């Protein structure tokens, strides 16, 4: 029997208003996240992938409540997340590491003061907070006697990201949201930070939501992966299952676009043609149908729902729904 989810999201939606005209009226809305559902089990890493503008980072900010959702429900460890009294408690349980390691830190605070700030704000005494900060610096590979008194501009990008990870751990959270946390680093430093994250997860019993555009990195760190396209979840499941047998055409295109040093896997034709449609006016039906090589008339009329496709995998595609009326659905089922 699988454990109860640590994080459960149902119908999460966030539209951003676009204003225009002399009076600044709302003339359109950017449909950044449009009714997504997913769960994160205790101790797992859920990777979130997709093209720029698909809603990955907006989803992260909604989870941590840096943005208020327009609709939907989020439950953490069985309790509903809202903007009331439970938000401070949520921030102790859920923390976030951002992409820009320099902008994430206060340039006027020393490293140890940045890490100790959160615990002090939540009631821990100054001496105890600084002791916890020093211990966390050591845990992330920065000797406190060398780095505690330094300022952000005195550190390299990798060192600053280690400080950000230590700061995120200072409130002893159970869930870390990592939004492109290694994408700004060169490959050697990226590998060190990834290994650090793996070690911290094992030693502290953490759960991760890991957002990245780098599919190789996602495969390395994730247990499951969620693929987003234009504000929607198109596929979610075990990482190796999806890598070996992508069911949604968009997932297959993403994996086909990955660079390879194997000459037998040389990419000779572009997996996808054209740019993603505007999130202000997304296509009707399946949002991917304007770029999908398997599109049928039903795809433009009816939006597919996220439905089970085998064990521990869900897909939102008419090809995996025999009742949808897609001409390719029957042959797809026969070869599944």
Report on this model:
With 336 residues, the protein is an alpha/beta fold. It is built from 12 helices and 12 strands. It has one domain (7-108, 151-335): Rossmann fold (3-Layer(aba) Sandwich), CATH 3.40.50.300. A hairpin with a 4-residue loop joins strand 11 (307-308) and strand 12. The protein is globular, with a radius of gyration of 22 Å. The protein starts with 6 loop residues before the first strand and ends with a helix. The model has no long low-confidence stretch (mean pLDDT 89).
Give structural attributes.
336 residues, alpha/beta, Rossmann fold, eight-stranded mixed sheet, four-stranded antiparallel sheet, 12 strands
**CATH architectural category:** 3-Layer(aba) Sandwich
Low-confidence stretches: none
CA-atom Rg in angstroms = 22 Å
Count every beta strand, where a strand is a DSSP E run of 2 or more residues.
12
**How many helices?**
12
Oligomeric state of the chains in view: single chain
The major sheet is characterized as:
8 strands, mixed
Provide the residue-averaged pLDDT.
89
The CATH superfamily name is P-loop containing nucleotide triphosphate hydrolases
Biggest sheet: strands side by side, in what order? 6-7-8-3-9-10-12-11
Helix content: 25-40%
Classified by CATH, the class is Alpha Beta
